[in-house]
Design a protein that fits this description.
The model has no long low-confidence stretch (mean pLDDT about 95). The strands form two sheets. The chain has a four-stranded mixed β-sheet with strand order 1-2-3-4. By secondary structure, the chain is an alpha+beta fold. About 20% of the residues are buried. Strand 5 and strand 6 form a beta hairpin. Helices cover about 40% and strands about 20% of the residues. It has helices spanning about 5-15, 20, 35-45, 65-70, 100-110, 140-155, and strands spanning about 30, 50-55, 60-65, 90, 115-125, 130-140. The protein has one domain: CBS-domain (Roll), CATH 3.10.580. The radius of gyration is 18 Å and the shape is globular. The chain binds adenosine-5'-diphosphate. Adenosine-5'-diphosphate binds near residues 62, 64, 65 and 66. Keywords: CBS domain, Repeat. It comes from Syntrophothermus lipocalidus (strain DSM 12680 / TGB-C1). This is Signal transduction protein with CBS domains.
Length: about 160
């Protein structure tokens, strides 16, 4: 960034946008789905990362392309083994919420070196445990699209 002014302007713009303004639909499979079925979903839904839900429909884990690739190194039966075996699981999932600012979400993506964040609504169940309902996803592509939209807006207005 060349000047302090530009930096301030970019920060200001990114703070105006919230996750709900740029999020897209999540791609979700059940934790009982086979690795094979999850890979098929990855292709049919054209997603890089899939979110995995437990039997109550709450977020249980995340599987990325690299997690699937890893299974080719071992002797896992992808038709039989459930996706829950290879996913990154709760509570180690980095999430965002609809009302978080885009700048906060970008910070998480960069700091944790991940491609996407599940957008969640948080609930407390009867045992006092936090449960996360997946309502969207935010990826590096969403951020790139926002930047492009902002650049085009500038030109027109
Ligand atoms: P890729 O596999 O395409 O490099 P990522 O960089 O997003 O995709 O994923 C790297 C690792 O981080 C994978 O093991 C994945 O399960 C995990 N991961 C991806 N997204 C999240 C997230 N939001 N929270 C925690 N772990 C994640």
């Amino acid at each position: 960034i060349k000047s302090e002014g530009a930096q301030g302007a970019i920060r200001k713009i990114l703070c105006q946008y919230r996750v709900k303004d740029v999020k897209s639909m999540p791609v979700v499979v059940k934790d009982t789905s086979s690795i094979y079925d999850a890979i098929v979903t990855l292709f049919t839904e054209d997603a890089g990362t899939i979110y995995v839900t437990d039997r109550d429909g709450y977020l249980a884990g995340v599987v990325s392309r690299k997690d699937f690739l890893k299974t080719t190194l071992g002797h896992i039966d992808i038709y039989k083994v459930p996706v829950s075996v290879i996913m990154t699981r709760m509570p180690n999932i980095i999430v965002t919420t609809p009302d978080e600012t885009v700048i906060e979400a970008v910070k998480k993506i960069v700091e944790h070196e991940i491609d996407s964040l599940p957008v969640v609504k948080k609930y407390i169940d009867e045992n006092g445990d936090e449960k996360l309902e997946v309502v969207g996803r935010i990826t590096k592509t969403n951020i790139a699209r926002l930047l492009l939209d902002l650049a085009n807006q500038k030109k027109e207005g």
